[in-house]
Amino acid sequence: MHKPVLLEETLKILINGGGIYVDCTIGGGGHARGILESREDIFLIGIDADETALQIAEENLREFEGRYTLYKANFKDIDVVLRMEGISKVKGILFDLGISMYQIKSGRGFSFEDESFLDMRIDKKQKLTAFTVINEYSEKRIAEILKKYGEERYALKIAREIIKKRKIKPIETAKELADLISSIYPKGGKIHPATKTFMALRIYVNNELENLKTGLEKGIMYLQKNGRIAVITFHSLEDRIVKNFLREKEREGALKNLTKKPIKPKLEEVRKNPSARSAKLRAGEKLV
Questions:
Q1: CATH of the domain at 46
Q2: Does the predicted TM-score (pTM) go above 0.85?
Q3: Which residue, among 38, 41, 72, 77, has the nearest Cα to 57 in the 3D structure?
Q4: Could you tell me if residue 63 is inside a domain?
Q5: Domain range for residue 181?
Q6: Are 36 and 95 found together in one domain?
Q7: Residue 236 CB: number of other CB atoms within 10 A?
Q8: Which of 44, 62, 187, 259 shows the greatest Cβ crowding within 10 Å of its Cβ?
Q9: Which residues 6+ apart lie within 8 Å of 180 measured at CB?
Q10: Alpha-carbon distance 167 to 39, whole Å?
Q11: H runs (alpha helix) in 43-98
C-alpha cells in the first residue's frame, strides 16, 4: 500500500470533530483510512480521476463499508460530486497532490525506467498525452512548458535535443526521454536529471495547477464554519498557489490560516519514505 505522507500531522490539523470529510485525491486510500479510523462519526467522500486508484481504495477501505462513497472525478468538480450526494456543507477537505507509488509503477510513463508508452495521464480517458507534447509540439512550446511547470533551467537545451531526436524517430517511452535528458544534463546532481522535465509534463498534461485553483475555490464554498481544509504539496508551484490562497482568504476574513509556515515531514519519515522529502502541508479553518 502507498505510504501516506505526513499522515499524523494531517490528521491532527484536519480532524476537527465528526461529520462529512472529503478526500479529493484518495489514491490508494492511505489518508482516507486514517481519517475513518480517527473517529467513528466521520463519513468520507473519496474523489479521484484515476480509475485504478479507486479500485485500490475500495479494497483498502472495505472494512469501513457504509461510511464512505467513492467517485471517479477530478477534484475541480468537487461541487458536482457534493451536489450528487445532496450535501451542502462538509467538515473537512483534504488534497494530497503527490503521485502514488502504484501510479509510478503503472506503466503510464511516470517512471524514468518505464519502457511502456509515454502517457502521463491520470485520467486515462482524456486525449492529451506526454507523447503528443514531446513529439508534436514546437521546440519553443516544449521549452516554455519545462520552464513554467518544472522550473527547469536547461529547458531550451532539453527541447532542442528532443527535436533532434524525434526527427530520427519518435520518442515513445519514458525511459527514452529520461535517457536523452541524462545524456545532456550536468553530472553530479542529487536528483535524477529528468525529474523536473517529468514533473512539468505531468502537470501540463493533467492541467494540475489550474485544477488546483478551481478545486480550492469550490471546496471552501462547501466548508462549514470551523471546518478545515488541508493541502499537501510536493513542489514550489503548488505550494505557492496554496499559500497565496490561504493568505487571500484570511485577508477576506473567510479563513484562519493554521500554517503560517508549512509543516514538513520529520527526518524519520523521510528516512523511511524518501519521496516525502519535498512534502509541505498547509491548512486553514473556515471562520464564517
A1: 3.40.50.150
A2: yes
A3: 72
A4: yes
A5: 127-205
A6: yes
A7: 12
A8: 44
A9: 158, 161, 162, 165, 171
A10: 58
A11: 51-60, 78-85
